Structure formats: C-alpha cells, structure tokens
Amino acid sequence: MAVVSVLLLAGLWSAVGVSSLAVVTCGSVVKIPNTRHNMRLHYGSGRGLQSVTGVTSVDDSNSYWRIRGKTATVCERGTAIRCGQPIRRPHVNTGRNLHSHHFTSPLSGNQEVSAFGEEGEGDYLDDWTVLCNGPYWVRDGEVLFKHFSTEVLLPVTGERYGRPISGQEEVHGMAQPSQNNCWKAMEGIFMKPSELTTEGRSPPRRAHVRSTLEWRPSLVSIVLQSSQEIASAVRRLLPSQNP
Q1: Is residue 190 helix, strand or coil?
Q2: What is the DSSP letter of 144?
Q3: Span 31-43, pLDDT tens digits
C-alpha cells in the first residue's frame, strides 16, 4: 500500500508524516477492511435494499465511510477516537449511516446490518462502540465494532450474495466474539489530531474542509491503494460550494 502525501489545491498542502497521524480521528474518510477475510466494508449497490456488504476490491469508491460522533453529539474534526467511544459512520457516497436493528439478515440468519438515514442524520440505531486496546483507535491496530443499542458485534463470516452483487459478502451482527469481528482502518483521508498541531491550537470550529486545509496545510494525510484514487477521494472530502 502506498502512502501518498500530496501537494494539491494550488500547492496549499504540505507533506505529512504518517507517524504523526497514528490515531483515527473525527472527520476522517476511510476504508475499513475485515482483517480475517480481507473484505472492505461496502455499500452494496445494485439491490433494492440499502444493504451493507464486504468486498475485496481496493478501488471501489462505495467503500468509503466518514467517522463522526454518536447521534445527537458533535465530534470536532481532528478529535481522536477513544477506545470505548460510540461513533457513527456515514457512507460517503450516499450519506446513509451504518445501521442495525432486530431484523434477520437474508443469508446467515443473524442480525441485519444495513444503511439508514439521509446526509449522515439517522437515529440511535446508527451508533457503534469502538472496542480496542489502549486509549485510542490507532490505524495499525485491530478494532471491534459493537452496536450500541443491541450489543451485537460486526463480523463477516463468508456468506456470498448472487446476482446482481455477485461476490459481495454479507455483513451482519452476532453476539459471539471471534476473529471474524476484527477490522482495521486502511486507505483513506485521515484528519490530523487537533491536539498535535504545530501551533498548539485547533482549527476554527465551524470552518469547512477547504478553508481548514488552506488555513493549516498539515491537517491531512492521504493513504490510498493507488494513485488513481486521489482525485475522486479529494472530491468526496471537499464541499461542493466555493470557499
């Protein structure tokens, strides 16, 4: 995997060392593979349902998820995610949150995991607790995701869909812990922890991403599987309006 620190936006970004960005933070946009099955958490487009699946492809833009605070809370951009902290994960392309409820999944018969809400706003069933060792969720460390309301864990166990999403695997909820429950933050756009900024102060609280990048160039590190992903990933991160 290539680590790409890029100069974009008319040269306003500077190179960022990965070692200073070890933790996962609010506002980051990431792909999250299952470490046992090497399946990236994915929005299963092609079905009538808003299904969440696992895919092996490293180039699929439907595998990007944004890290946000739990429902009805604000998690400032650049805030490090603590182990034991509830979060939401809106799907970048659709704005729907990773969601679970007491319905049966179609393939395994376990608890269904789906995508719900609009523009990152859904309900309390969108909240997942990050379980990990240590004080923070670190990018090289395995984590488990426990559904905050129903307390099931998030695994992939190998059940595959047929057409029209052939090869995609079911993601569901299970109460039993196992190696199938382990995930890791991989390629994506990682916001630098605000407490580690060189000037010792956080970015403006209400600034959107473009103005934040121009004000503090070293806020982001981009970790992508291939250089072809850079432009599309940046477009997803930046707002559509002019600064």
Answers
A1: strand
A2: E
A3: 999 999 999 999 8
In sign, the C-alpha dihedral spanning 136, 87, 94, 43 is positive
pLDDT at residue 129 is higher than 60? yes
pLDDT of 214 over the 70 cut: no
The pLDDT of residue 194 is 73
Enter the pTM of the model: 0.74
d(CA 113, CA 111): 7
Amino acid residing at 60: D
Query: pLDDT (tens digit, 9 = 90+) per residue, 165-180?
Result: 888 999 999 999 999 9
**Both ends of the chain: CA-CA distance in Å?**
32
Distance CA 89, CA 127 (A): 8
Cβ-proximal residues to 12 (8 Å cutoff; 6+ apart), any chain: 213, 214, 217
List, in sequence order, every residue forming a beta bridge with 240; answer none if it has no partner.
none
E strands along the chain, which residues?
A: 2-4, 29-30, 33-34, 39-43, 52-55, 65-66, 68-69, 86-88, 97-104, 111-116, 128-131, 144-147, 156-160, 169-173, 188-191, 220-224
- Residue 192 and residue 66: Cα distance in Å, rounded? 14
Note the pLDDT of residue 219: 53
Consecutive H or E run containing 21: none
Q: Are 134 and 115 in contact (CB under 8 A)?
A: no
